[in-house]
Amino acid sequence: MDCPCGTGCEDCVNGKLEITDCPLEFLTWDINQVIMHSDIYEKGTPVAGTCQLDQTQWFLSAHHFIVAEKAFWKKKLRLF
User: Fold this and answer.
1) For residue 1, which of 13, 9, 10 has the smallest C-alpha distance?
2) Does 60 fall in a domain?
3) Does residue 18 lie within any of the structural domains?
4) 3-state SS string over 16-42?
5) What's the chain's Rg over C-alpha atoms?
6) Residue 28: its pLDDT value, please?
7) Which domain holds residue 46?
8) Residue ranges in the chain whose pLDDT is less than 50
9) How many CA atoms lie within 13 A of 43 on its CB side?
10) Residues linked to residue 2 through DSSP beta bridges, in sequence order
11) Quick one: which of 7, 15, 37, 69 has the fewest CB in 10 Å?
């Protein structure tokens, strides 16, 4: 797949990345939880507030970032 750098960097060869492992293996538990809760929130179910994950500004910012990234990659990979 195309590397975001476009030309070549230490992670790719001539602007191409080779994916050999599941990308989800690189996510930490907390990031995975934010993505999961963002999906639930996008479907219309508010995330219940707790001391670890509350619907504060940081969660809404993370949610908007995740939605934008999904849209970007769906368009780029023509997965609509």
Assistant:
1) 13
2) yes
3) no
4) ECCCCCCHHHHCCHHHHHHHHHHHHHH
5) 16
6) 92
7) 27-76
8) none
9) 7
10) 16
11) 7
Residue 19's contacts (CB-CB under 8 Å, 6 or more residues apart) are: 1
Amino acid at 15: G
pLDDT, residue 5, reads 76
Does 21 fall in a domain?
no
* Any domain includes 69: yes
Query: With the C-alpha atoms ordered 31, 26, 9, 75, is the resulting torsion angle positive or negative?
Result: negative
Q: Which residue has the tokens 């001391």?
A: 51
Cα-based distances in Å from 17 to 2, 27, 32: 6, 18, 23
**8 A C-beta contact, residue 30 and residue 58:** no
State the sign of the Cα–Cα–Cα–Cα dihedral 80, 35, 68, 16: negative
Q: Output the pLDDT for position 51.
A: 56
C-alpha–C-alpha distance, residues 52 and 30, integer Å: 9
